[in-house]
Amino acid sequence: MTKEIESYILSHSDEEGSLLAALNRDANVNLLRPRMLSGHLQGRILKMFCRMLKPKRVLEIGTYTGYATLCMAEALEKDAEIHTLEINDEMEDFIRKYVSQSPDKDKIKLYFGDAMEIIPALDESFDLVFIDADKRLYSDYYDLIFDKLPAGALILADNTLWDGKVLEPLHPADKQTAGILAFNDKIKADQRVEKVILPLRDGLTMIWKK
């Protein structure tokens, strides 16, 4: 997608709003890897998924700035919740700064720590899961959450095209790309789900549990 096409798409889509725009600016000025946040286009798409699916419980693995969290929370009904997990506790002040300003803050449950330890302790089932964390562990996250999902639940996995590295020869030291390749192959072979990769930004895989 060219920048011109993306600009046209964004100009004909809903605006991100003042809070998300402020978060985006803050991230680009003060964080080392601002490209990691979901951004305007993906944020509106995540919100639309929540509008359509009306999930009661959402699990987000990898909060980062909280941008995607806030986008999904916008579309959740009053009695719904999003449980969001972030391993980097240095992001806590940044995340809480913006979550606290959101009119949807009561729908958001924040957890800081290792998702591999937190997820087994969550006594919840989830209608929607968004995976955007350590690429080396995507397959492990998938295995952890699968039994917590009812039939008809949707998993969204981000970065599954990984800057096109999925098509390049794998360097032995590149554990992130190896993790994405293993995950993509795992999902392709899993007959318990239907799946499709969307060429959105860095690749977004939709996985529907049968």
Automatic annotation (TrEMBL):
SUPFAM superfamilies per the UniProt record, alphabetical: S-adenosyl-L-methionine-dependent methyltransferases
An example molecular function term from Gene Ontology annotations: S-adenosylmethionine-dependent methyltransferase activity
Q: Which InterPro entries match?
A: Cation-dep_OMT, SAM-dependent_MTases_sf, SAM_O-MeTrfase
Q: Which Pfam family is one of those matched by this entry?
A: Methyltransf_3
Gene Ontology biological process terms in this record: methylation
Alphabetized, the UniProt keywords read: Methyltransferase, S-adenosyl-L-methionine, Transferase
For this protein, the record's PANTHER family field holds:
CAFFEOYL-COA O-METHYLTRANSFERASE 3-RELATED, O-METHYLTRANSFERASE-RELATED
Q: What is this protein called?
A: Putative O-methyltransferase YrrM
Species source reads Macellibacteroides fermentans
